[in-house]
Amino acid sequence: MTADIRNLQWLRSIKIDGHPDFGARLYEALDDSRTHLNTLEQQGNFNLQGTPAAPPSPSNLNITPHPQGVQFAITHDADFYQGINYEIDATSSGVTHTYDVGASRNGILPVGKLNATYQVRARYPNGSSTKAVQFPSPVIGGSGTSALLPSQGAGTTRAAQPPGFGGPYRGNKPPTR
Fold first, then answer.
1. Tally of CA atoms within 13 A in the half-sphere of 40 that contains its CB
2. For the stretch 49-62, what's the b/e string if a residue is b when 16 or more beta carbons lie within 10 angstroms of its beta carbon?
3. Higher model confidence: residue 169 or residue 91?
4. For the whole model, what pTM was predicted?
């Protein structure tokens, strides 16, 4: 959504004695401000008219037992922009705990030997969450190997892309506003 400045075209036509280009310069200043606000809105995943829309949902959640709890790998192949964060819900015996894992799509949740079901949601800061993507079956943590699942990247990197190599991934289109 672009920033709208009312009467912008009319301001361009204003003429003041001794300053015939006053309206044109005022128009340029306000138009530059609008352009900068639109850039800020896009780069920061903001919405000048309200709450930004949720990003596309993650594609998949993989959960495996790990000696310290469970290990997760979030696959997110959709077009999204920078600033995305993930939340994983662990539900056991009707009680749900939410873990904010930030921009990381891989990690370990220190849940011990908890038998739980898991789901993941994505969101931009100050935005609403996507629909949850569930892992299909309960997982009992606190066992298994400490071998790591393949990297799914973090933030705007591609899967298996080390941080700092190449530019950040940005989708083909900016996020929906």
1. 8
2. eeebbbbbebeebb
3. 91
4. 0.70
Q: Where are the beta strands (DSSP E) in 10-164?
A: 60-66, 69-75, 85-92, 95-102, 106-109, 115-123, 133-134, 139-140
Query: What are the strands, taking DSSP E only, across the chain?
Result: 60-66, 69-75, 85-92, 95-102, 106-109, 115-123, 133-134, 139-140
Is the Cβ–Cβ distance between 112 and 69 less than 8 Å? yes
Condensed to tens digits (0 to 9), the pLDDT of residues 100-153 reads 999 889 999 999 999 999 999 998 877 889 999 999 999 999 998 888 888 887
- State the residue range of the domain holding 24: 8-43
Check residue 168 and give its pLDDT: 47
- How many folded domains does the chain comprise? 2
User: Residue 172 has what pLDDT?
Assistant: 52
DSSP 6: T
**Residues 148 and 126 placed together within one structural domain of the fold:** yes
Q: What is the dihedral of CA 101, 66, 135, 119, to 10 degrees?
A: -30
